[in-house]
Amino acid sequence: MAPHHLTGFPSLAAFIASDQDKTAAIFKRFNRLAARNLLHLQSELAELQAKQDKLDQQELSGDLKSQQYSRNWADFCAAAASEATQKERMELAQNIRATLKEYRKALLFEYTLATLPPPTKRTLEAFRWHFFNGDPAGSDSFPTLGGHSSGLFDDEDDLMALRMAEDQDRLTTFVQNHLSFLFQARFHRATPHLPLIVYASDRRMARFVIVLSITLAVVILVGSIVSLYIVRSPNKKLGMIAAFTVIFASSVGVLTNARRAELFAVTAA
């Protein structure tokens, strides 16, 4: 018997962890806060850069001794321990170092997050049914998390799935959206009043798509060869060649993720 988890963080964490394909690992991006944080760091660096330029200009008009500090790091460090001006420059350099590191780290984090895919509509729909303990639009539903966390999953454009989705062709998408009932792996119901959530195996669907793709490719190839061998009329052969070319190009576009240039090249070949 499956253990019963307290409604809240325990039940939501158990639901996310129960998905072996990790498609239910859906979290909020906080894009607005992330953009604002980058803007703050950017503006802070702009102020530090202006301050650095100002000190450089002051040192440019100073004596040779002070200018030497901008050429020799050891002299600069020694002077920072005794001279107030150089101490200020050292503190500024350390502040720039720390802020620049934080800014670039934040940029790399955002770059990484930007590559994470959004959740699929069917997965998000099931996730919301569980999160709201029923129909999200129903009067009897209530969010699993309270306070401001109750609206975490409202904005679909601000959500991401941690599992990196493989490149999916149109056939795979069609199978996932319309034939997923054929690949049911297991079921999940946290409480008796919640609807039954069905897990479909991505691995089984991927194997099915591979077999179907190979079968269709063989049928198109062998069918065209046999048909052209049987038909004797040149005019009919030209028509059949045109028809098979269209069928082949369409199948490549549907069964693969070929780009437009690749589609033209393969069809011409």
Description:
It comes from Glonium stellatum. Residues 31-61 form a coiled coil. It holds the Pfam family DUF6594. By secondary structure, the protein is mainly α. Among the domains are: 31-114; 166-269, no CATH class. It is built from 10 helices and 4 strands, in the order αβαααααβαββααα. The strands form 2 sheets. A two-stranded antiparallel ribbon has the order 1-2. Strands 3-4 form a two-stranded antiparallel sheet. Helix 2 runs antiparallel to helix 5 (84-114), helix 4 packs across helix 5 (84-114) and helix 8 (202-230) packs antiparallel against helix 9. It is flat, with a radius of gyration of 31 Å. The chain starts with 8 loop residues before the first helix and ends with a helix. The relative contact order is 0.10.
How does the SSE layout of this entry go?
Blueprint (H helix, E strand, L loop, with lengths): L8 H9 L8 E3 L2 H30 L3 H5 L4 H8 L3 H31 L6 H11 L27 E3 L8 H9 L5 E5 L8 E4 L1 H29 L3 H22 L4 H9 L1
Antiparallel strand pairs: 1-2, 3-4
Secondary structural class = mainly alpha
What's the overall geometry? flat
Strand content: 5-15%
Largest beta-sheet details? 2 strands, antiparallel
Overall radius of gyration: 31 Å
Strand order of the largest sheet: 1-2
Helix content: 55-70%
